[in-house]
Specification:
- By secondary structure, the protein is α+β, with helices and mostly antiparallel strands.
- It folds into 2 domains: about 55 residues; about 160 residues, Rieske Iron-sulfur Protein.
- Helix content is about 35%, strand content about 20%.
- The chain is built from 6 helices and 11 strands.
- A hairpin with a 2-residue loop joins strand 2 and strand 3.
């Protein structure tokens, strides 16, 4: 019974003529507005995507970012014994304000006798103005690329002298825990460690106001030499 009642009702509904939604003026108008809005939105998205290459061309290239611009550091804010790290050419660069006690220890004969290259004879590791016992333009400020010359690990800053697990009579400096290389507070490498050379001193200079600029100096030939070896 219910099945036959449903069939009869279905026949009455299908046989009855009526106006569909597509024949109603209000519905047609609404549909046209929706289609127009969708078309306009698609066009706007297309224009936006088309401008992306142009906008990308205005941004610095990856190569330019890798080369890096000079970095300015306000060294007046550094406390004695404090080390900060900045990024230049994608590498960490240390800026250390050495204390008078640190400078005195760096001239100690016991320390110098344990260094592989105390006179910075490998010229590619620093500009000529850094070929001195402190490897710097200013004795109190040390600037170096903070990468071990063995495999490029980042050594740890260990300024406190004393007996250490990695060295007896440690006089302060940098220790690379990866393979045990050691450097003094001028980045000079110790004897009998995996690292073959002193830490690299990048080109740098100081402004009249005392700011440090890493990546440029007043001797372009020296800057080219260092850049070609980094």
């Amino acid at each position: 019974m219910s099945r036959s009642r449903g069939s009869k009702n279905q026949q009455n509904l299908t046989a009855r003529p009526g106006r569909g939604a597509a024949d109603r003026p209000g519905v047609c108008q609404t549909r046209r507005q929706i289609l127009f809005a969708a078309t306009a939105t698609t066009g706007a998205v297309g224009i936006g995507l088309a401008t992306l290459p142009f906008l990308s061309s205005l941004a610095p290239s990856t190569r330019a970012q890798e080369l890096g611009a000079p970095v300015t550091v306000n060294v007046d804010q550094l406390d004695p014994g404090e080390l900060i790290t900045v990024i230049w050419r994608g590498s960490p660069v240390w800026v250390l304000r050495r204390t008078p006690q640190m400078l005195e220890r760096m001239l100690h004969k016991h320390l110098i006798d344990g260094l592989a290259d105390p006179d910075s004879s490998v010229v590619s590791q620093q500009p000529p103005y850094a070929r001195n016992p402190f490897r710097s333009r200013r004795p109190d400020l040390f600037v170096a690329i903070g990468l071990c010359t063995h495999l490029g690990c980042i050594p740890l800053y260990q300024p406190t002298p004393g007996n250490m697990p990695f060295a007896d009579d440690w006089m302060g400096g940098f220790f690379c825990p990866c393979h045990g290389s050691r450097f003094d507070l001028a980045g000079r490498v110790a004897k009998r460690v995996p690292a073959p050379r002193n830490l690299v001193v990048p080109p740098h200079q100081y402004t009249k106001r005392g700011s440090l600029i890493i990546g440029v100096d007043d001797q372009r030939d020296e800057m080219t030499t260092i850049a070609s070896t980094s």
